Amino acid sequence: MKKILIVDDDQINRKLLATMLSKQKGYVVEEAQNGVEALSKLTPDTALVLLDLIMPVMDGLTFLQRYRIEKPECANVPILVLTTDDSKKIEAKNLGAKEVIIKPINPVEIMEKIATYLED
Ligand SMILES: [Mg+2]
Fold first, then answer.
1. What is the CA(21)–ligand 1 centre distance, in A?
2. pTM
3. Per the structure, how many domains does the chain have?
4. Domain containing 74 — which CATH number?
5. H or E element in which residue 13 lies
6. Element (H or E) spanning 4, and its range?
7. What is the pLDDT of residue 32?
């Protein structure tokens, strides 16, 4: 089973993504409300992370800066950023995000993108 970690401070966004991924696609979904929770829930068997940028406690850019240092065993986990803030796109890419998708998300588009990173 592929495990996907959804990181977003907005519960509605998390539930929308979680429902799509678990009910429609059968992925195992974990949720985190900020970068600190995401760091604690990230494991080597996490197949993919969906990361919001603007969050309290620890934002998405800080998570991107830290996860390879604090969890080096997770350095190859692909991170897809979902954000309303177009201006952070280049910075997120420079920090290693595989994709930066601007919200509101198109469910079909995001499912296709996620699938390309989860092919065996
Ligand atoms: Mg947010």
1. 19
2. 0.95
3. 1
4. 3.40.50.2300
5. helix 11-19
6. strand 3-7
7. 98
Domain residue limits at 19: 3-118
Per-10-residue mean pLDDT for the chain, 120 residues long? Answer: 95 94 89 98 97 97 97 96 92 96 89 87
Question: Contacts for 20-29 with beta carbons within 8 Å, 24 or more apart?
Answer: 20/107, 20/110, 20/111, 21/114, 24/111, 25/111, 26/1, 27/1, 27/2, 27/3, 27/118, 28/1, 28/2, 28/3, 28/4, 29/3, 29/4
Centre of ligand 1 from the C-alpha of residue 35, in Å = 11
How far does the centroid of ligand 1 lie from the alpha carbon of residue 33, in Å? 9
Ligand 1 ion: nearby residues, β-carbon < 5 Å: 9, 52, 54-55
What distance in angstroms lies between residue 120's CA and the mean position of ligand 1's atoms? 31
pLDDT of residue 12: 95
Upstream peptide bond of 104 is cis (omega within 30 degrees of 0): yes
Q: Which amino acid is at 44?
A: P
